[in-house]
Design a protein that fits this description.
Shape: elongated
Distance between the termini: 24 Å
Number of strands: 16
Order of helices and strands: HHHEEEEHEEEEHEEEEEEEEHHH
Radius of gyration: 41 Å
Strand content: 15-25%
């Protein structure tokens, strides 16, 4: 076989280039710290690296969402704390205003302070986050949720309207988990149950047509058995299907105060209202003693009771109506109006005491509602904290997987680099020797 000088040169150059290419690849691996520089280096490992990287990026996005949710809920929690402190302050002033030693001007001063608190509460309800979204507007983040509307009549008072919705903004914080990062203002400020949450006890007739003349004051009442209350409220006990309510009516015979329970429910329009129907016997009254909401004909046990203190006059009434919803803004506005009205008679003072107690009960309901929402936000923050810890653990596992797949073994790489370098030097020296061979040197 004949080997020409060109073949010797080409083979030597190809060998050196191959060694140089392998040396360059090792150098790139060492400088980058990566074993896989292209999919061709290890196709199976490269595919697994791509899959793990994608999973890690998705998990990182969930972690960022969790952080954003924590920031938003933290701001909401801060505002809830401000609302709770404000209502506690108002509650303390209301209790102070109930002192009989205060004059009309003293109560008006308290009313002015509560008016300032009302404006402060309205500002908190319309607070925004760093992105300019209203915290308590539901899905309507760009809409001012609470607006003070003008009075509809000359004798009326302005009212606060809610222009958000009942929704909560959700964030994807996990592969199969969403987390609410907001609180609907309707749930926090507007839909607060009246009275004790089951029924509202108030002085006077349920239709508001009568004013008591005695000194009787009714408390907020209590439900002793929730199941009995529900069964009796939803039974066929009522003579009418609308405005279902009870009245406690007082009478006096020979100086002995007695009371009787009446059903004052009415049929739906356009049927004419029905007269009140007595559902219990005349019973003797003792001030401060519990009055059970128990009827005899027809038989119905509501599992509830009320306590009336003072001495009701003949003809006085006290209504028991199912609880509705009332906003905390309306409660504060009614408190302001109540405290600004002068008390010119003993009957006015008795009515004032009863109404003030009712507003105080509603403030307690508002505070309980804020506490409930705070507990919900706190539970979400706790859940996000757990998710964040798990996300950190998952990210560590992803890093370990990626390191095992693509990180370089430096000891092995440096050994290979040294060996390849020796191979290149040997190839270069042999090329010099072979390329120097010539027959002319022997002639």
């Amino acid at each position: 076989m004949r080997i020409s000088s060109n073949q010797l040169y080409d083979a030597g150059v190809r060998g050196m280039e191959r060694n140089q290419s392998q040396l360059l690849k090792l150098q790139e691996q060492i400088s980058s710290g990566r074993r896989i520089l292209s999919p061709a280096d290890d196709p199976v490992a490269a595919a697994r690296v791509l899959s793990v990287t994608q999973s890690r990026e998705i998990a990182a996005q969930y972690a960022r969402n969790q952080g954003a949710a924590v920031d938003r809920l933290g701001l909401v929690d801060s505002q809830l704390g401000a609302v709770s402190d404000l209502l506690q302050s108002v509650r303390g002033r209301v209790i102070q205003a109930g002192n009989t030693i205060l004059s009309d001007s003293d109560r008006q001063a308290v009313a002015s302070e509560i008016d300032a608190r009302f404006s402060e509460l309205l500002g908190i309800a319309n607070s925004q986050n760093g992105e300019g979204d209203y915290l308590f507007a539901g899905h309507q983040g760009a809409t001012t949720p609470f607006v003070l509307r003008a009075a509809t009549s000359p004798a009326g008072a302005p009212s606060v309207g809610y222009f958000g919705d009942d929704g909560e903004r959700l964030m994807q914080v996990g592969a199969a988990q969403q987390m609410s990062s907001s609180v609907a203002g309707s749930d926090l400020f507007m839909n607060i149950r009246q009275g004790n949450g089951s029924f509202l006890a108030a002085a006077g007739g349920g239709d508001g047509s009568s004013v008591n003349q005695g000194s009787g004051v009714i408390d907020s009442g209590s439900v002793l058995d929730a199941q009995k209350w529900q069964r009796a409220s939803n039974s066929d006990f009522w003579q009418g299907s609308t405005n279902q309510a009870l009245e406690i009516r007082f009478s006096s015979v020979s100086g002995v105060s007695q009371y009787q329970l009446f059903d004052v429910s009415t049929p739906p329009p356009p049927d004419a209202p029905l007269p009140a129907k007595s559902v219990s016997e005349l019973l003797p009254f003792t001030a401060g003693q519990a009055i059970p909401l128990l009827s005899g004909a027809p038989a119905a046990d509501f599992g509830a009771q009320v306590v009336i203190t003072g001495l009701p006059a003949d003809g006085d009434r006290f209504s028991i109506t199912p609880s509705g919803n009332k906003s905390v803004f309306q409660t504060m506005q009614e408190l302001i109006g109540l405290l600004r009205a002068p008390l010119a008679s003993s009957q006015a003072r008795t009515e004032f005491t009863g109404q003030l107690a009712g507003h105080l009960t509603h403030l307690d309901q508002a505070l309980s509602n804020v506490s409930r929402v705070q507990a919900s936000v706190g539970a979400r923050l706790q859940a996000l904290d757990g998710l964040s810890n798990r996300s950190t653990a998952v990210d560590i596992l992803h890093q370990q997987s990626l390191s095992a797949l693509q990180d370089l073994d430096y000891a092995q790489a440096l050994s290979d680099f040294t060996r390849q370098q020796l191979s290149l030097e040997a190839a270069q020296k042999s090329f010099v020797t072979i390329s120097g061979l010539s027959l002319f040197s022997y002639l």
